[in-house]
Amino acid sequence: MAVTATDAIHPRFAKKPLFYSIGLKIALVQLSVGKDKSKNVAQAVKKIHQAKAKGAQLVALPECFNSPYGTKYFNDYAEEVPLGETSRALSQAAAEAGVCVVGGTVPERCGDKLYNTCTVWDINGKLIAKHRKMHLFDIDIPNKITFKESEVLSPGNELTIFECNGVKVGLGICYDLRFQEMAHLMAKEGCGLLIYPGAFNMTTGPKHWELLGRARATDQQLWVALVSPARDANAEYVAWGHTTLIDPWGAVVAKLDEKEDTLVHTVDLSMVEDVRNSIPIRLQRRTDIYDTVRKS
Prior knowledge:
Blueprint: E1 2-6, E2 15-19, E3 23-30, H1 37-53, E4 58-60, H2 71-77, H3 85-97, E5 100-102, E6 106-110, E7 113-121, E8 127-132, E9 138-141, E10 145-148, E11 160-164, E12 167-171, H4 180-188, E13 193-197, H5 204-220, E14 223-227, E15 244-246, E16 252-255, E17 261-268, H6 270-278, H7 281-284
Helix pairs in contact: 1-3
């Protein structure tokens, strides 16, 4: 688990996180997603149990795993959290398998608003975290892709951190990956692993999916997991796939192709402190000149 120690090199250097030698076995599930919600959810539950059988302690699902990705679908597929059928299924699966489940994302209905929301369930099936996508995907790349989530969705306003087996884990969703300030604040609060369920497309995926994941891992010196849906070439929105795990050196240690599959790997948290000791950028930031701060 994370503890703190004061670095004695210079008095202006703040405290830094230290990690014991912790191995966390994670499974990143790249699901095929269709228009049948019940079928999508049933497949996710099946994959959770299969991942547990492979020794996973944490299972992460992709963005919009119970719904096609598209603004015209969000309202029809939206559910309340934690009362909806998808939440109930994830809670039951987490409890039955005895594994922490990062529930990708689902369209969440709250009053008259819709959110793109990731839920986290502990080994007892209890909801321990909920992250609403903070940065909405509003882009226009001429002759390539135009998409505006804000036509339907509202943004979340909170950073989300939870703990699994003594490891602090930070959550972001897809477009959140582009905002390093968010990652920096989660790292600053002790996270050794960031998980981003995301559905990058065939334009941004090849260009930026791995690049941004490696950038966040490198600049924050921690593990980054990117979890995509599988690619369906016949869908209206075609996901890039290539679920990827990146270590604190910024190296890709495991990656899937575009098809449905599960990536299982043990995350060595001792690497986080090794890298941070070797290249001590946390201690060298000029916070007398610049800083990134969390606003309540």
